[in-house]
Amino acid sequence: MKITNITSTSIVLLTVCAVMLISMATAADEGEAMSDQKEQFFVQLLGTREGWPNDMTPGEEQIMTEHYHYLEGLVKQGKVITAGPVFDPVFGLIIVKAASKAEARALIEKDPSVTAGLHTFEIHPMRVSLLVENFDEDRYVKNPTNRRLTKEVLVDAVISEVYRAWTTSEGVRTFFAPDAKVELWPGGAYEMYFSPGEPEGLRGSDGCRVLSFLPSSMFSFEWNAPVRFGPLRDVYTQVVIMFEELDTGETRVTLTQHGWGEGEDWDELHDYFDGAWTYVLENLKKRFTTGPVDWSSN
Predict the structure, then answer these.
(1) What CATH code is assigned to 136-297?
(2) Which SS3 state, helix, strand or coil, does residue 3 take?
(3) pLDDT at 35
(4) pTM of the predicted structure, to 2 decimals
(5) Which CATH class is domain 22-130?
């Protein structure tokens, strides 16, 4: 699905709102780029007879209780993101997180309401781009300023390759940090390990998370301060990366960091990231002209 006319300002607003946005896409949209990541699937449970579910028999009610507990177990395992009834039209909604469509299908086929013949189902690949549970107010500045730190670079590569560089563990290791953990779903880890040998919590962007994404258009994540900035390390800013494919075959990458507080310590942090993001974007550009960064020589 091609997304057009998305501005940096509108994405900033989407990122900070506590809402869920579902961006439908085919499984192949970013298949190669995210082959190592979990995918999401929208499942519709459909009743198999007229009058369902208003005239359930006691036996059917028991099956539906088993159905509830089955899904509850999948939620606890992290395999179901959300589930519940839709009333008009009537169907059951389940959003599954799985490595493949086959895996998602296997989970639903074991649902007691499906095995008992009360439901059939349809399953569709999708992307959960924003999720309310991923926004914890205590992680962010209570009253952020309107300050924005914006950087831009032209990269000599097609948009899918540049997007992959930001959104996979393998990609970020080529320009961002020598090691990393990237989980491309809302709330997934977005941790760059600039000092992989240090203890956990001190390696780099430990604790940062993916906020939202639109394949080959936008990617948003939390970002924290280096350890030397003391208490500010525990207050997360937000970074939005916009990707624009140009007629020249290049990709324009625009980075915007927002969520800043006020005071001298925040001014110092802003100045630090002003230089740091310039360095990162220059590395991104070089990655596609001269090759990946050789971290052993740094």
Answers:
(1) 3.30.530.20
(2) coil
(3) 38
(4) 0.64
(5) alpha beta
